[in-house]
Design a protein that fits this description.
alpha/beta, Lysin, six-stranded antiparallel barrel, elongated
């Protein structure tokens, strides 16, 4: 919603509801200000998460309630709030404009445009802090969210309404995997929100340009809490993005939100809490750090048909150090989410991209949303792959292996080559089923590693010429696959 339109609407509501009578009000004063926060005295009835007005026209969010004073987050970085400034109640909660006019836009956590375009004209707003849907309003995850990545759509499927964590060291491809997933939603009827927390402007510009170049920005809203922003604005960024996506879910639509990343969000919240003099706990994080992310991620779900049937799928990113997934914030998020995709630095260095460590990754509920045909083929293949990873260890010692073991290792290495995939190259579900049938039936066993991309391209080209539905009988799939691979030779 445009700032002027929002102000006029609030004034009209106050004028309409005005009645003559005696009124008692409260007015406080700023006693200290700095680092994006202000300390206020004299508002004893203020509530947490309430908006307050300063005399210079700027606004603040009540964050900390103490006996003698309030800790307030300044919402305007250019505010001219000084010690002694007057502060007054509003009784309002922090909201952001929501609606389809936000698609293709880049905004800050308060909904102000960062793309140089006029403010979007939005007629509705959503609260940044809201209760998650109750259990009775939720439904089972039963529809797949295709990422276009071979390793994910087959071995680690994601369902619409799921919360799937992407975890790994810096530089292992977490952001790339999230962007690829958004690009894969073209034509799938899924609206996306990408939240960048504490990102440098160059990194944010690169992500936005990638989405624009691939046509994905048309169905995506980008919310940016810049690296130079105050801790309070970084803290609000994921809640703003969630409010935008949640509004579409409540309208019965399917949405996807990416939080990039919640490690930075946790650090911003820790900085904000320490500035507000909250007692530090483990690793100096405040005691409610788990609740911070739980109340955010619990808003992602699939609603029942009586409540619109919409869904909100969350892909939070979290960064580890030296592969330590048992550290504080990652373990918190693992326990909140419905599974994790672990990206391994050693696989990345070896050129296995995306660098997904299958044994350490899991999707706890995504299999229930997977197409039965894909699920059947993937079940056979995943067991072979996990056995291969265990057997491959023995080859490092030069041990002589029996023929059956060597065959399993050879097929495992073939599968690893198949699962490699270039960035920004999403693949359709029919192709995922096609290559799995070809692999399970041994049609690709004769391929040398450098011939695998050509064989997969032949299958993809064959599907483009002669599309097959997922429900087509397996025998027809086999006949087509043999024909396409023979033509490629």
């Amino acid at each position: 919603m445009a700032p002027e339109a929002g102000l006029l609407e609030r004034l009209a509501q106050r004028v309409e509801g005005y009645r003559f009578g005696l009124r008692l009000g409260e007015q406080g004063r700023v006693v200290a200000v700095g680092d994006g926060i202000a300390w206020v005295q004299g508002l004893p009835s203020a509530a947490a998460e309430e908006i307050v007005d300063f005399e210079d026209g700027s606004r603040g969010l009540v964050f900390e309630l103490q006996k003698q004073r309030l800790g307030v987050i300044l919402l305007d970085p250019a505010a001219k709030v000084v010690s002694g400034s007057l502060v007054s109640h509003t009784g309002e909660r922090l909201e952001i404009g929501v609606g389809d006019d936000l698609l293709g836009r880049v905004v800050d956590p308060l909904g102000k445009p960062l793309d140089g375009l006029p403010p979007p004209e939005l007629k509705r707003s959503g609260a940044l802090e809201g209760a998650s849907p109750p259990i009775v309003a939720r439904d089972f995850v039963s529809r797949p969210l295709y990422t276009g990545a071979k390793v994910l759509d087959t071995l680690l499927p994601i369902g619409r309404g799921q919360r799937q964590l992407i975890i790994g060291d810096s530089g292992t491809g977490k952001t790339s995997l999230a962007i690829d997933t958004i690009v894969a939603q073209a034509g799938q009827g899924v609206k996306c929100v990408y939240v960048m927390i504490g990102q440098k402007r160059a990194e944010a510009a690169m992500v936005i340009e990638t989405l624009r170049r691939r046509g994905a920005l048309a169905y995506t809203t980008v919310v940016v809490g810049e690296a130079t922003a105050t801790p309070g604005m970084k803290y609000l960024a994921p809640f703003a993005g969630c409010a935008v996506a949640e509004a579409w879910m409540l309208r019965g639509e399917d949405t996807l939100i990416v939080y990039d990343d919640l490690s930075t969000h946790a650090r911003a919240y820790r900085e904000l809490a320490l500035l507000m003099h909250r007692p530090p706990g483990r690793e100096a994080y405040p005691g409610d750090i788990f609740y911070l992310h739980a109340r955010l991620l619990e808003r992602a779900t699939r609603l029942g048909s009586a409540h619109g049937g919409g869904s909100l799928t969350a892909l939070p990113l979290v960064e580890t150090e030296e592969g330590e997934i048992a550290s504080y914030i990652p373990t918190n998020l693992i326990s909140i989410t419905d599974g994790q995709i672990y990206l391994d630095r050693r696989l990345f260095a070896a050129g296995v991209l995306p660098a997904v460590d299958v044994p350490l990754s899991v999707s706890r509920i995504g299999g229930k949303a997977q197409h039965p045909r894909i699920k059947e083929e993937a079940g056979r293949m995943k067991l072979d792959y996990l056995q291969f990873l265990e057997l491959e260890v023995f080859t490092r010692f030069g041990t002589k292996l029996e023929a059956g073991t060597e065959a399993k290792i050879r097929r495992g290495r073939l599968l690893r080559e198949i699962l490699k995939q270039e960035r920004l190259s999403p693949l359709p579900p029919a192709f995922q089923l096609a290559w799995m049938i070809a692999y399970n039936e041994g049609l690709l066993d004769a391929c040398a590693p450098n011939a695998v991309p050509g064989a997969l391209q032949a299958i993809l080209a064959g599907l483009a010429r002669d599309p097959l539905a997922l429900d087509v009988v397996r025998g027809d799939w086999l006949a087509k696959l043999r024909q396409w691979l023979a033509e490629a030779r």
